[in-house]
Amino acid sequence: MSPTPPPAHEPASDTRFDYIVIGGGTAGALMANRLSALPGKRVLLIEAGRRDDYHWIHIPVGYLYCIGNPRTDWLYQTEAAAGLNGRTLRYPRGKTLGGCSSINGMIYMRGQARDYAQWAELTGDDSWRWDQVLPQFMKHEDHWKLDTPGQAPDGFAQWHGHRSQGSTGEWRVEKQRLRWDVLDAFAQAAQEAGVPASDDFNQGSNEGVGYFEVNQKSGWRWNTAKAFLRPTCYGRANFEMWTSAQVARLLIEPQADGSRRCTGVQVWTGSEMVNAHANTEVLLCAGSIGSPQILQLSGIGPADLLHARGIQPVIDLPGVGQNLQDHLQIRTVYKVEGVKTLNTLANSLWGKAMIGLEYALKRSGPMSMAPSQLGAFTRSRPDLAHPNLQYHVQPLSLDAFGEPLHNFNAFTASVCNLNPSSRGTVQIKSPRFEDAPAIAPNYLSTDDDRQVAVDSLRLTRRIVAQPALARYRPEEFKPGPQYQEDAELARLAGDIATTIFHPVGTTKMGRSDDPMAVLDSRLRLFDGAGEAGQPRRTVAGLRVVDAGAMPTITSGNTNSPTLMMAERVAAWITAAA
């Protein structure tokens, strides 16, 4: 049996620790695990949400009941976007132990090697290149193909980790426990359209079509709380965890040499405000929305914004909350005939009963489904040097997330631009830590992004027109075949597109001479924008470790790259300790 979780915080006289980790999500759970393994070092983990003891967190299809639920979601909304024709979007972020890994699509995806080459260029640090970060992905991976000797193809172990291969093995990767005829036909149609088959999206070039691998274990969601907290941290005497505790601000103190140091955090426990102090470091792991919000509330950010919100600037750092990037998916829907989809299966009492029974007996079937099952990576134009599109294909359709399934058989082929040029912002609205920030992704705000949207819709039509799908007589339901002109398709993309929940970049790492860089290449916070030609100091005792540190978005789902970044930072800290 796993050790009993430590109790939620109760007022204590001793609030001094060696390390304080803010956020028990994807990065924070790993950071807490690695730092609490240091002998003699006291570690505090602070999580604004509750424990991950809600049953829908662990049943894979439970994301339907976690997103939009205040028990597990911050319930953010974006600002109205011109590129979306004035629409606002629901913007889910995990508010529970495990963070977004408790409510996300569970897809294991590293991105492309070129993503990390770009990071190396933007930071001036070659240690961010693919061959340098690959061991950090593998360090905690436990890949199903390596469970049995001889099961994996030759050479597979050079790309993937497993407990038997020396990996710490906390992060389980498994194949999905279902298949659909209509998805198999889409995969064949994609190949007929020139997209090669792939059985591994994680070897540096993810081009191809195939079923996604997922972070599940025996049909259950595998979140970072189960992977990194529950088996180890709960049994360590030097580990303490406060849940339902929200950080109001960081404590920044001037030093004798004119520099600054983060000495701790101010935390609202639900009944009192407590100052917790860190002897060594504070690790801000609150995510691409939460981390810039906490920095701005602490007086760290664009001085003009802080003054306007009634906050005295402590560090004028203009990049905080800028550079927001996200993957916007365009959801095309096709009616089909002569094949089962989840629409009709789940729209009957008998079908629902059979789905529940299959999961209860086998941990398989629709209740074990990730939100997307089939994936494809390809190019919007043949002259591109790399795949710039990702498809998420599902054997179902609905008007919008959370709405009922349609009463006809259909599939959804959602396509996103992997490398959008649109940039948005995260800005506090008030000096109150309880108030949600303004989130403005500025989707489809550039000509390039609008053209990629148009090209991707045309490519989807070309794939669906291939012989492999002809027997199911696909009929375009959304956006509709009547729309053919570029201007029409660009406008329709704004009408039907939605986020795929991958915000990054709001506290980006970069070179010292980039005034918009928030962090150095080791994720330490810069002490101001600096002067031209002069090296920039960093704030002692503070790093930001989450997807906000990415200077550019990875070419795929962002959860596992965030884990990789946390693994790197933990290695640097433990080596120094």
UniProtKB/TrEMBL annotation:
SUPFAM superfamilies: FAD-linked reductases, C-terminal domain (SSF54373), FAD/NAD(P)-binding domain (SSF51905). Residues 287-301 form the Glucose-methanol-choline oxidoreductase N-terminal domain. Belongs to the GMC oxidoreductase family. The keyword Calcium does not apply. This is GMC family oxidoreductase N-terminal domain-containing protein. Gene3D superfamilies: FAD/NAD(P)-binding domain (3.50.50.60), Glucose Oxidase, domain 3 (3.30.560.10). It comes from the Bacteria. InterPro entries: FAD/NAD-bd_sf, GMC_OxRdtase, GMC_OxRdtase_N, GMC_OxRtase_C. Keywords: FAD, Flavoprotein. Its cofactor is FAD.
